[in-house]
Amino acid sequence: MRRFVAAIDQGTTSSRCIVFDRSGRIAGLAQREHEQLFPRPGWVEHDAETIWRNTEFVIGAALEDAGASAADIAAAGITNQRETTLVWDRTTGAPIHPAIVWQDTRTAALCEDLAGTVGTSRYADRTGLPLSTYFSGPKLRWILDNVEGARARAEAGDLCFGTMDSWILWKLTGHHLTDVTNASRTMLMNLETLQWDSQICAEFQVPVSMLPQIRSSSEVYAEISTGPLSGVPVAGILGDQQAATFGQACLSPGEAKNTYGTGNFMLLNTGTTPVFSKHGLLTTVCYRLGDQPAVYALEGSIAVTGSLVQWLRDNLGIVDSAAAIEPLARSVDDNGGTYIVPAFSGLFAPRWRPDARGVITGLTRFVTKAHLARAVLEATAFQTREVIDAMRADAEAENLGLELTTLKVDGGMVANELLMQFQADILDVPVVRPVITETTALGAAYAAGLAVGYWSGTDDIRANWAEDKVWRPSMPDDERERLYAEWNKAVERTYGWAD
Ligand SMILES: Nc1ncnc2c1ncn2[C@@H]1O[C@H](COP(=O)(O)OP(=O)(O)OP(=O)(O)O)[C@@H](O)[C@H]1O
Ligand SMILES: [Mg+2]
């Protein structure tokens, strides 16, 4: 039997390929960053051809790192930055515009138009989502409206839309497909039927013929026809946050994880019925295995967490690496009264305020760059607290039985022990990090491996999960509440800035 499963993780800041063994351990890894393009304030783009070249490169390099060839790989999974939107020519394969990244806010006015007199909840009962610049549907509409000739070519059937999973799959296999989790982030899919909603597509003026076919998250889609994985079946596709949920073995209703990457995304498995939030969370498809019923999740999406660390590094030059923020922040005892609210793309969950923009509050002559470093890390923990409060409120209202006895965490920022301790303190809940923090890639590998029988069932996923470290709350209650109240005051200062 083949030894490994490969996962391609096409993320916001980088593309990775990781080769896993049956115990879920990493046998080989390669990663390559790509440039973030900011052509105007609020616009964020990626070059899709560069991303494809990086993907090809990391596949070869990860196999080499594992000392493996295609003959050793049972299946490949794809996971991806979600919502990022691409349109390409069906014949030549050339993108007609750079990929519009999930953080991009260029569709703010369009979203207001689409909301009409009903408001941002216009499509919430069918899609689980508020109308927001975050999702793919408005971005696709923008491309059709703004790229010369695009609408006519789309109507003639000459263009393909895809999120990055579809783009990578199309490049690897020539097939135009997506999975239910990615489709659930477009605002064009009906959460109950798991198919494109023709009425919403018509109202968005998006021709259904340009959309990929929607498939489950774990099934054999097609064989790879190019490069070092030639002949290997692609058998799993999951959006990155759903993949991390799967990789963290949150497989029963009530189980949740929080991923600390470019942004933060907390997902709570709610089982086979979609639950609609009354507290600013999204309803999304968590995963669907083969022809089993889909499993849904409630999600709290925070746009800016790790990317605030990058901003401190790249835009302000206060640290020269992300890891350097921890010793700098530790050099002071507290935030010195300073709060940074990184509403760079407005505020996502649970507030959904497109009119918000970032602020630094509480500045006095006392404040140093070390206090700012601390405020950067604390912003992640406070935003997470807001999402968890919303999740608790929804869980209580809907009798969901949220098991928040500990919070399972993963993603690049969980290397930061100061942040993890502060997170436990601000939540008053222990925070637990698993041995494998590359849960996004692992989840995609699991989906692919299950489809081809490399793993025999989801019990294998549970058995592979292992704890690395736990942080326990130690902050006095009054201190916690004082800090959180000050954070709230700072957040209110962000409102009403963008018109
Ligand atoms: N030691 C650290 N302390 C604080 N933040 C860190 C640290 N190391 C990495 N980060 C932040 O973590 C983020 C990278 O995490 P990760 O690789 O999980 O991101 P990601 O969201 O998966 O990336 P992508 O969006 O490409 O998938 C970066 O934004 C970086 O600033
Ligand atoms: Mg990622």
From TrEMBL:
<feature type="binding site">
    <location>
        <position position="13"/>
    </location>
    <ligand>
        <name>ATP</name>
    </ligand>
</feature>
<feature type="binding site">
    <location>
        <position position="262"/>
    </location>
    <ligand>
        <name>ADP</name>
    </ligand>
</feature>
<dbReference type="Pfam" id="PF00370">
    <property type="entry name" value="FGGY_N"/>
</dbReference>
<feature type="binding site">
    <location>
        <position position="134"/>
    </location>
    <ligand>
        <name>glycerol</name>
    </ligand>
</feature>
<keyword id="KW-0319">Glycerol metabolism</keyword>
<keyword id="KW-0808">Transferase</keyword>
<dbReference type="InterPro" id="IPR000577">
    <property type="entry name" value="Carb_kinase_FGGY"/>
</dbReference>
<feature type="domain" description="Carbohydrate kinase FGGY C-terminal">
    <location>
        <begin position="257"/>
        <end position="451"/>
    </location>
</feature>
<feature type="binding site">
    <location>
        <position position="240"/>
    </location>
    <ligand>
        <name>sn-glycerol 3-phosphate</name>
    </ligand>
</feature>
<feature type="binding site">
    <location>
        <position position="82"/>
    </location>
    <ligand>
        <name>glycerol</name>
    </ligand>
</feature>
<feature type="binding site">
    <location>
        <position position="262"/>
    </location>
    <ligand>
        <name>ATP</name>
    </ligand>
</feature>
<feature type="binding site">
    <location>
        <position position="134"/>
    </location>
    <ligand>
        <name>sn-glycerol 3-phosphate</name>
    </ligand>
</feature>
<feature type="binding site">
    <location>
        <position position="416"/>
    </location>
    <ligand>
        <name>ADP</name>
    </ligand>
</feature>
<feature type="binding site">
    <location>
        <position position="240"/>
    </location>
    <ligand>
        <name>glycerol</name>
    </ligand>
</feature>
<comment type="pathway">
    <text>Polyol metabolism; glycerol degradation via glycerol kinase pathway; sn-glycerol 3-phosphate from glycerol: step 1/1.</text>
</comment>
<comment type="similarity">
    <text>Belongs to the FGGY kinase family.</text>
</comment>
<protein>
    <recommendedName>
        <fullName>Glycerol kinase</fullName>
        <ecNumber>2.7.1.30</ecNumber>
    </recommendedName>
</protein>
<dbReference type="Pfam" id="PF02782">
    <property type="entry name" value="FGGY_C"/>
</dbReference>
<dbReference type="GO" id="GO:0019563">
    <property type="term" value="P:glycerol catabolic process"/>
</dbReference>
<feature type="binding site">
    <location>
        <position position="310"/>
    </location>
    <ligand>
        <name>ATP</name>
    </ligand>
</feature>
<dbReference type="InterPro" id="IPR018485">
    <property type="entry name" value="FGGY_C"/>
</dbReference>
<comment type="function">
    <text>Key enzyme in the regulation of glycerol uptake and metabolism. Catalyzes the phosphorylation of glycerol to yield sn-glycerol 3-phosphate.</text>
</comment>
<dbReference type="GO" id="GO:0006072">
    <property type="term" value="P:glycerol-3-phosphate metabolic process"/>
</dbReference>
<feature type="binding site">
    <location>
        <position position="14"/>
    </location>
    <ligand>
        <name>ATP</name>
    </ligand>
</feature>
<feature type="binding site">
    <location>
        <position position="412"/>
    </location>
    <ligand>
        <name>ADP</name>
    </ligand>
</feature>
<feature type="binding site">
    <location>
        <position position="412"/>
    </location>
    <ligand>
        <name>ATP</name>
    </ligand>
</feature>
<feature type="binding site">
    <location>
        <position position="16"/>
    </location>
    <ligand>
        <name>ADP</name>
    </ligand>
</feature>
<keyword id="KW-0418">Kinase</keyword>
<dbReference type="InterPro" id="IPR018484">
    <property type="entry name" value="FGGY_N"/>
</dbReference>
<dbReference type="InterPro" id="IPR018483">
    <property type="entry name" value="Carb_kinase_FGGY_CS"/>
</dbReference>
<keyword id="KW-0547">Nucleotide-binding</keyword>
<feature type="binding site">
    <location>
        <position position="12"/>
    </location>
    <ligand>
        <name>ADP</name>
    </ligand>
</feature>
<feature type="binding site">
    <location>
        <position position="12"/>
    </location>
    <ligand>
        <name>ATP</name>
    </ligand>
</feature>
<feature type="binding site">
    <location>
        <position position="241"/>
    </location>
    <ligand>
        <name>glycerol</name>
    </ligand>
</feature>
<feature type="binding site">
    <location>
        <position position="83"/>
    </location>
    <ligand>
        <name>sn-glycerol 3-phosphate</name>
    </ligand>
</feature>
<feature type="binding site">
    <location>
        <position position="12"/>
    </location>
    <ligand>
        <name>sn-glycerol 3-phosphate</name>
    </ligand>
</feature>
<feature type="binding site">
    <location>
        <position position="306"/>
    </location>
    <ligand>
        <name>ATP</name>
    </ligand>
</feature>
<dbReference type="GO" id="GO:0005524">
    <property type="term" value="F:ATP binding"/>
</dbReference>
<feature type="binding site">
    <location>
        <position position="306"/>
    </location>
    <ligand>
        <name>ADP</name>
    </ligand>
</feature>
<feature type="domain" description="Carbohydrate kinase FGGY N-terminal">
    <location>
        <begin position="6"/>
        <end position="247"/>
    </location>
</feature>
<dbReference type="GO" id="GO:0005829">
    <property type="term" value="C:cytosol"/>
</dbReference>
<keyword id="KW-0067">ATP-binding</keyword>
